[in-house]
Amino acid sequence: MKKIAVIGLGYVGLPLAVALGEKRPVVGFDINAKRIAELQKGEDFTREVSAIELAAASHLSFTDSLDEIADCTVFIVTVPTPIDDYKAPDLTPLVKASESVGNVLKSGDIVIYESTVYPGATEEVCVPVLERVSALKLNEDFYAGYSPERINPGDKEHRVTTIKKVTSGSTLAIAEEVDALYADIITAGTHKASSIKVAEAAKVIENTQRDLNIALMNELAMIFARLRIDTHEVLSAAGTKWNFLPFKPGLVGGHCIGVDPYYLTHKAQAIGYHPEIILAGRRTNDGMGPYVASELVKAMIKAGHTIADARVLVMGFTFKENCPDLRNTRVIDVVKELQDFGCQVDVTDCWADGAEAEHEYGISLVDKPEQGSFSGVIVAVPHKEYAAMSAGDLRGYLKADGVLFDLKGLLPLGEADLRL
């Protein structure tokens, strides 16, 4: 049985390593020594894997040393693929991971990528790095595969083993081997694509499709606000039709939906096609933070509040509910816009790590917001703890005539002053 190394132990890599480690020898590798020490103690800050699940993966070990993965023959790369400040793909983590693997790559080994990329990236970017560092040749000395991750952080129902897996390989025989490897742990089954490029494209359009649908809902929310119609009430009525898609308006961040479309548009522009619909959706979604802030400010002015130095409480800072993941959170756009208006903004989040929020965004999270102190409250992320609160509980943070903005429609119609 081939020994596997999983490169990168974040929200994607760790659950995969644990699932594989229940059945076969696996080494989880990460350059973050602190992360390795945490996992060796049976702790996972992402809360994706429990201590019991870690203990059940009896064939799994963790390391930050390349020497300890040198005897592996299958390498699965699960590092993040973010965008830079100019919305262009940042392949630095992927290139560095490929260099690391290249240093221990041997004849007969297989390197499988799970990181989300544009069609062609595996063979055009990653493989050349592997070849340069190892001095080996693809499909002569080593082989490649691509099986896009489909992890949904914070989702305890759809786990790595219960989500159908797309697989592919650099040759027909390797495609079969890669598919068999995943089929051994994926109870939902696998789908073998005809090529690595097809598998890459399938992944990138999954999130592009969601991004466009949410952009449509956000645009509808802005239209309905002007018509003085409640968007969620409209969606509830429209949802009675059997084929109406249940998307809702909101902030679009995170490491997938708010990022992946830029990978596709980058590649499209590189081959001479200038996409319009995809980028229009991105512009709409990227503009929702300032829109939310301006709607709150207008409501506060109408309620008689002075905006300069007005205190506003933002509840929730992660990119989605019931998850500590702060990557690419668009709540920061709301915070910055309110600060530009002159507001004093307190941010609280019962799931986020305060040190990470401070390091990544310069935000000092407040553990216990003061009651009766705020001119406005925005429930930005529907964590289960906030969903359990009543309108009265939330209004307890407000001054007289303060404005409650229920961003995600947690409360029944009419109980908040604003919602998308």
Supply the key terms:
elongated; 12 strands; 420 residues; six-stranded parallel sheet
Question: Could you walk me through the main structural features you see in this protein, from its secondary elements to its overall organization?
Answer:
This protein has 420 residues and is of the alpha/beta class. The protein has helices spanning 13-21, 33-40, 51-56, 92-102, 121-134, 172-183, 196-226, 231-238, 260-270, 277-286, 288-302, 331-340, 354-361, 384-387, 391-395, and strands spanning 4-7, 26-29, 60-63, 74-77, 110-113, 143-146, 165-167, 190-192, 311-315, 344-348, 374-379, 398-406. The strands form three sheets. It has a six-stranded parallel β-sheet with strand order 3-2-1-4-5-6, sandwiched between helices. A four-stranded parallel β-sheet has the order 10-9-11-12, covered by helices on one side. α5 (121-134) links the parallel β5 (110-113) and β6 (143-146). α7 (196-226) packs across α9 and α7 (196-226) packs across α10 (277-286). The chain is elongated, with a radius of gyration of 23 Å.
